[in-house]
Amino acid sequence: ISFLNLQVGFNADEAHNIVKECIDGVLGGEDYNQNNINQWTASIVEQSLAHLVKLGKAYKYIVTCAVVQRSPYGFHTASSCFWDTTSDGTCTVRWENRTMNCIVNVFAIAIVL
């Protein structure tokens, strides 16, 4: 029996890399434009979710995305979860360029079979 591929719990690093690639693909090279925010955020969450589901793991996913224009006031978020920390997990990806900040949260809840 090979245990090399056996993973208990959520792989936050894998999710982080997937989400970062999606953000880079949507926002990379763009400047903040309020008219594009709805399309950008929808694309980021839909692409991230699709790639996470393609991993074929027994999880339900929740993906949130916020994009704001950069300002001297900063941007702060928080979340709290009540769940099984041995199997469920979360990751947060922070991304920025000179005109905007983006924060994506992934929440993964294990499906008990």
UniProtKB/TrEMBL annotation:
<dbReference type="GO" id="GO:0005634">
    <property type="term" value="C:nucleus"/>
</dbReference>
<dbReference type="GO" id="GO:0045505">
    <property type="term" value="F:dynein intermediate chain binding"/>
</dbReference>
<dbReference type="Pfam" id="PF03645">
    <property type="entry name" value="Tctex-1"/>
</dbReference>
<dbReference type="GO" id="GO:0005874">
    <property type="term" value="C:microtubule"/>
</dbReference>
<keyword id="KW-0498">Mitosis</keyword>
<comment type="function">
    <text>Acts as one of several non-catalytic accessory components of the cytoplasmic dynein 1 complex that are thought to be involved in linking dynein to cargos and to adapter proteins that regulate dynein function. Cytoplasmic dynein 1 acts as a motor for the intracellular retrograde motility of vesicles and organelles along microtubules. Probably binds BUB3 as part of transport cargo. Required for the efficient progression through mitosis.</text>
</comment>
<dbReference type="GO" id="GO:0007018">
    <property type="term" value="P:microtubule-based movement"/>
</dbReference>
<protein>
    <recommendedName>
        <fullName>Dynein light chain Tctex-type 3</fullName>
    </recommendedName>
</protein>
<keyword id="KW-0995">Kinetochore</keyword>
<keyword id="KW-0131">Cell cycle</keyword>
<keyword id="KW-0505">Motor protein</keyword>
<dbReference type="GO" id="GO:0051301">
    <property type="term" value="P:cell division"/>
</dbReference>
<keyword id="KW-0132">Cell division</keyword>
<dbReference type="InterPro" id="IPR005334">
    <property type="entry name" value="Tctex-1-like"/>
</dbReference>
<keyword id="KW-0813">Transport</keyword>
<keyword id="KW-0206">Cytoskeleton</keyword>
<comment type="similarity">
    <text>Belongs to the dynein light chain Tctex-type family.</text>
</comment>
<keyword id="KW-0944">Nitration</keyword>
<keyword id="KW-0493">Microtubule</keyword>
<keyword id="KW-0243">Dynein</keyword>
<keyword id="KW-0158">Chromosome</keyword>
<comment type="subunit">
    <text>Homodimer. The cytoplasmic dynein 1 complex consists of two catalytic heavy chains (HCs) and a number of non-catalytic subunits presented by intermediate chains (ICs), light intermediate chains (LICs) and light chains (LCs); the composition seems to vary in respect to the IC, LIC and LC composition. The heavy chain homodimer serves as a scaffold for the probable homodimeric assembly of the respective non-catalytic subunits. The ICs and LICs bind directly to the HC dimer and the LCs assemble on the IC dimer. DYNLT1 and DYNLT3 compete for association with dynein IC (DYNC1I1 or DYNC1I2).</text>
</comment>
<dbReference type="InterPro" id="IPR038586">
    <property type="entry name" value="Tctex-1-like_sf"/>
</dbReference>
<keyword id="KW-0137">Centromere</keyword>
<dbReference type="GO" id="GO:0005868">
    <property type="term" value="C:cytoplasmic dynein complex"/>
</dbReference>
<keyword id="KW-0963">Cytoplasm</keyword>
<keyword id="KW-0539">Nucleus</keyword>
<dbReference type="GO" id="GO:0005737">
    <property type="term" value="C:cytoplasm"/>
</dbReference>
<dbReference type="GO" id="GO:0000776">
    <property type="term" value="C:kinetochore"/>
</dbReference>
